Amino acid sequence: MHRRDVEASSTTAGLPVAPSLGPALDRAGAPRRRRIAHVRVARVAALSAGIALVAALVAQVLTRLIGFVTNLAFYGRLSTAFVSPAENHLGAWVLVVPAIGGVIVGLMARYGSKAIRGHGIPEAMEQVLTNESRVPARMTFLKPLSAAIAIGTGGPFGAEGPIIATGGAFGSLVGQLVPTTAHERKALLAAGAAAGMTATFGSPVSALLLAIELLLFEYRPRSLVPVAVATVVAAGARVALVGPSPVFPMPDLAAPGALALAAYFVLGGLVGVASVWITRLVYAIEDAFERLPVHWMFWPALGGLAVGAVGYLAPRTLGVGYDNIEQILAGRIVGPALLVLAVAKLASWSIALGSGTSGGTLAPLFTVGGALGAGLGAVFAELVPRAGIDPRIGALVGMAAVFSGASRAVLTSVVFAFETTRQPSGLVPLLAGCTAAYLVSLISMENSIMTEKIVRRGVRVPSDYGADLLDQVLVRQCASRDVVTLDASRPMAEVRAWLASGAPGTSHQGFPVTRGADLVGVVTRRDLVDGEDRDRGGGSAGDRVKRAPVCVFEDQTLRSALEAMLRAGVGRVPVLSAGGEERLVGILTRSDVLAAYRRVMNDSVTALPIAWRKERRRATP
Fold first, then answer.
1. Under CATH, to which class is 11-32+470-603 assigned?
2. Cα separation of 311 and 319, whole Å?
3. Which terminal Cβ of the chain has fewer Cβ within 10 Å, N or C?
4. 23: confidence class by pLDDT, cuts 50, 70, 90
């Protein structure tokens, strides 16, 4: 049915009917205006604040636990101080320390939970997409414990991934203990994950963006508010526990000129190419482990041997390496040392991650990307001396761009690099470089380092965020105005005779039934034709009404109307006027909704080149 430009009055089968619904409106099931946020959002936000405090404490406990394992494994002392294993004096014994950690992690995965394997974010995404954000409770302590062992024994990972996973697991656990919907549980999971990232890096805004880009799969107040509250609380807790200093302090940077910005854009694109190959390398190694004739429980130990071998040759690759990132950004690691660090860290981390041990991706990617960016920045500075290219900004751009290209969390990458260094002069170069890397990644590979694993398991991961097409169309724009109503007292014999006559309106498939000023319900053509009294012709039209009517207002969106239809299990709903005097002004069917959706969808591609539209039509089944 098509929209009428002029509103037609409601008519009945041979009899006029008063269109005003009067006091019957409350019985008509008409949905009232939907609020943007419900009071439950405040309740979920309050729960998120508590989860954030716990996540901040867990972050500190995990950091100290990593320090304890590191001190014990590499220095033979009992201490929780966070130290680097690079200064150890174990000699060749360093080869076996990561392997021992791999054995322990493998046993924990085999007899505890296989979900502790990996860096945590893809696993959290999978729970959101396939399991209503229900993370097993044991993950709350198994993930941080396994990560502490893997990293503390020299694993080249960051602590942030396990902390994010642990915070998310705790948020999910709270959502399972407290009565919540699936959407609220997702918000709690994301709040815990974002709070864990904030507590680690002091980056509340980028943690919120990470949740939006990788976990929530929506941008709505019901999820944004709780996660934002969690990041603010976690940021305050971190200041109280650690202090306000940035994680990666840098010397003050000068604002770049136009030529320098162009160079940083190119630099970001080159690092984006590297991020594509890094992603492919990680999954190629993972595939190679899958082909080994060895049980997966022993893969982390094999990966640990590789970590120990690389660590013996390049001790800086052992452990989280936050100090490496700080020195790269400060310009204290230059020349061949940058290349050695980038290659060695990449080799160690990719093999360890591919083996299925427990650890994060952010710190290793930042190390590799920062080293590449600093090296490229130094080369560009030599080639174009007048451009004013700063290798330290190159390192900052490279650090963020490699994560932007690998994860496709472009906004997270830009803001994270700013929050962890507090260098405002780096914001525009970061935006240029991360955008270039993001574009290269989109063109070069189908999935990201975060989604490839779960896509292989058959999970569909949303990649775009856009306004719902059905939320852009009002009911009045597509509802049929030619409403044919039936009087509830009209005998069924007359109704059937009218249907058989072929008179105007008899081809409709649904008819509102009224009794005076009251809307009684809606009957379908099948309701009128079928029934026990079909042959006798007894009863009236009102007897065929099976349920109270479900109505919508003409100024509501098609999304609201479709939700009302789905909840009630009906294929058509009467449309009421939006003024103070509610009147029956139309009827909306599923066909109307589909036709409107088709029109809006076609309008959205009219700007595409003709060749692209033809190709799209050929590809559409």
1. alpha beta
2. 9
3. C
4. very low
CATH for 258-456?
Answer: 1.10.3080.10
**Do the beta carbons of residue 169 and residue 139 sit within 8 Å?**
yes
DSSP-assigned letter for residue 422? -
Please tell me what DSSP assigns to residue 14.
S
* Residue 341 contacts residue 349 (beta carbons within 8 Å): no
Radius of gyration of the chain (CA): 31
40-241: CATH, from 3.40.50.2000, 3.10.129.10, 1.10.3080.10, 1.10.150.240: 1.10.3080.10
Which ranges in the chain are annotated with CATH 3.10.580.10?
A: 11-32+470-603
Helix 160-177, helix 139-152: angle, nearest 10: 170
For β-strands 484-487 and 552-553, DSSP reports them as: unpaired
- Residues 12, 482: Cα–Cα separation, whole Å: 11
Confidence class of residue 138 from pLDDT cuts 50, 70 and 90? confident
pLDDT of residue 251: 87
Q: What is the pLDDT of residue 122?
A: 80
- Contact at 8 Å (CB) between 324 and 110? no
- Average pLDDT over the chain reads 84
Q: Strand 484-487's sheet: what is its strand order? A: 11-12, 484-487, 510-515, 518-524
